Amino acid sequence: MLGPYKQQYESFKQNPAQFWLEQAKRLPWYKKPEHAYTQDTDGLYHWFDDGQLNTCFLALDQHVIAGFGEQTALIYDSPVTNTQQKYSYYQLQQEVAKFAGVMQSLGVSKGDRVVIYMPMIPQAVIGMLACARLGAIHSVVFGGFAAHELAIRIDDAKPKLILSASCGVEIDSVIEYKPLIDHAIALANHKIDHCVIYQREQVAATLIPLRDINWDEAMQTATAVEPVPVSGSDPLYILYTSGTTGTPKGVVRENGGHGVAMHYSMETVYGMQPGDVFWAASDIGWVVGHSYIVYAPLIYRCTTILYEGKPVRTPDASAFWRVVEQYQVNALFTAPTAFRAIKKEDPNAEGFKQYNTRSLKRIFLAGERLDPPTYSWLKEKTKLPILDHWWQTETGWAIACNPVGIEELVTKPGSSTVPTPGFDVQILNMQGKQCAPNEQGVVAIKLPLPPGCLPTIWQNTARFKTGYLTQYPGYYLSGDGGYIDDDGYLFIMGRTDDVINVAGHRLSTGEMEEIVASHPAVAECAVFGVTDTLKGQLPMAMIVLKNDFTGSPTDVEQALVQTVRNQIGAIACLKTIVSVERLPKTRSGKILRKNLRQLVDGDELQIPSTIDDAGIFEEINQQLTLR
Ligand code: COA
Ligand code: AMP
User: Fold this and answer.
1) Reduced 3-state DSSP string for 190-240
2) Do 276 and 330 form a contact (C-beta atoms < 8 A)?
């Protein structure tokens, strides 16, 4: 007899359309969909395009109408500014409806784009939900990105409006946002109409008359607006993520599939009940923040926590446990790097013992590989289920998980457990044939992807097709390698492309390489990810200076560290740049970045037969040792 998980997985496999139409019935649509998915003329899949709904209504109004207006919707906890604030569903609905009025009066309507560049403050969530209320498409840009990155996104999304705040607050510094925004607007070709700026206590931003609007002042005269019905296939948001080149990819999320997937995942993946307290310790600039700080907990009527702080140094390594006790958190979701940081500062988990964390049922981890030592430490110290799950910005929710809402399966360290119902995960070899159990290959998902996943890349279906669909027709290529064992458990072994994961942040070495290569003294270069005990991976660059360069290599290296920081942002974390005499290449001229990573990590070198001079690695090793 099949267990409950296998039964549910089989029911999805037998009839995906029926499976998801049943789930869709659980949402309050203005017009219920009759079709599950359709394919457009480009062959792209869209879910529930004949349904009509509004995502802000799902997240707020439906709960107020059902009598839960007094329940806490959002808790803002900011150790960096010493602020704590609660919003009930009713209060949040009122704020959002009014802010939607502000945006409407500035000319924003259905289908318009709005860029949100904000720190972790309630106004960021209000801005996102207000866009959803109007049927406008938000594009949140992580506050750690520099002006150049913001400008690239402005040019791609072509927003009417930018929402921002006067500053972000980091552990030891206050980062003024307004100069960054003004710089980004100057760099961008696309011209925006207005910026709405929330003035924080720490810094007063200088507003440009007529263009810039003070958030609080605009709210004083705003009129609340009602949710605007949109089609299930109308976009809710665009979220840019790193690809292998310098141009980020705008992942599109559509309203209907997203609503259904968020609702289903809260129950199935996280085992939540309406009224529970859910805490995703991430940032609204990342997909985890979109899905599990903002939309899913609210759609499912949980209380969500917006935490403007770090796992350590705000003020110490017990910060997470303090939040758990204070707000009676039932589920905590973060990236493994957060626990590596805690473990480093508090190896005996003394902080955990200080607080009453009995409300916490499970800890969920994703964003990067959950390394077995971190898994074991966390399990031993907390005695809680530690659940790894695997997903991507593109999918918006877990492709593989321990489906605790259906059946809590035995965990295996290193595995993100089993495919979530909705995802037909297969391991393919180079020829596109299915691998045998335990055989490593590329991880692919049979089309159509389930609700909530990207239908395409914003304004770039060609890139979507070449990047994800063309290599294995009928499948979505995840970009990760891995295998499925005899029990059907999925093991993700890492990216098969030039994307790296630094402290749970996805970054492109290709983009860094483009910046490094543009320095006038650099003849050629390679940027690759090396292992780091805290952040999982860190980027490292090797450069070859031009023959006629007569200056100091150290000066170039330092200048490049600064340039990458200025162009991408501090989160790029490219701090190690080494000049070498030459780089290893195949006969066809391809730089062997993988071998450079193996060399620096001290792994066994798997040198391809297409290289003429294997001695080059010894030469580089000596140069590294001399430093
Ligand atoms: N705005 C501006 N700058 C930011 C920023 C933001 N929102 N977030 C990070 N930065 C800056 C940091 O201040 C730091 O700058 P510095 O080089 O001048 O010190 C730099 O970017 C690197 O930040 P980070 O990678 O976060 O390193 P850290 O040393 O400050 O903190 C951790 C390390 C592990 C504590 C931190 O990465 C963390 O909390 N990770 C949790 C995982 C997480 O949230 N992942 C997101 C996806 S789930
Ligand atoms: P992002 O789009 O920023 O969420 O990054 C997605 C990538 O992070 C994936 O393609 C994986 O490479 C990696 N990743 C996310 N979650 C996991 C996990 N649980 N285990 C291993 N890798 C993961």
Assistant:
1) CCCCEEEEECECCECCCCCCCCEEEHHHHHHCCCCCCCCCEECCCEEEEEE
2) yes
**3-state helix/strand/coil string of 422-450:** CCCEEEECCCCCECCCCCCEEEEEECCCC
d(CA 26, CA 433): 38
Model pLDDT for residues 204-232, shown as the tens digit of each residue: 999 999 999 999 999 999 999 999 999 99
Which CATH class, in words, describes the domain spanning 503-626? alpha beta
Considering Cα of 98, then 103, then 107, then 110, what sign does the dihedral take? negative
- Give the residue, out of 78, 117, 170, 293, with the most ligand 1 atoms within 8 A of its beta carbon, to mutate for a pocket test: 170
Phi, psi values for residue 34, rounded to 5°: -105, -25
Q: Which sequence spans correspond to the domains of the chain?
A: 503-626
Q: Closest Cα partner for 251 from 140, 126, 124, 108?
A: 140
What angle is formed at CA 115 by the lines to CA 112 and CA 120, rounded to 5 degrees? 135
Half-sphere exposure of 160 (CA within 13 A, CB side): 14
What confidence tens digit (pLDDT) does each residue in 257-274 have?
Answer: 999 999 999 999 999 999
Q: How many CB atoms lie within 10 A of CB 110?
A: 13
Centroid of ligand 1 to alpha carbon of 524 (angstroms):
29
pTM confidence score: 0.96
Ligand 2 centroid–CA 17 distance in Å is 27
C-alpha of residue 388 to centroid of ligand 2, in Å: 11
Residue type, 264: Y
Report, as an integer, the average pLDDT of 485-492.
97
CB atoms within 10 A of CB 559: 14
- Among residues 451, 453, 455, the alpha carbon closest in space to that of 24 is found at 451
Question: Is 223 in contact with 413 (CB distance < 8 Å)?
Answer: no
Mean pLDDT of the chain: 96
**Residue 606 confidence class, pLDDT cut points 50, 70, 90:** confident
For residue 50, the one-letter residue type is D
Of residues 246 and 195, more confidence is placed in 195
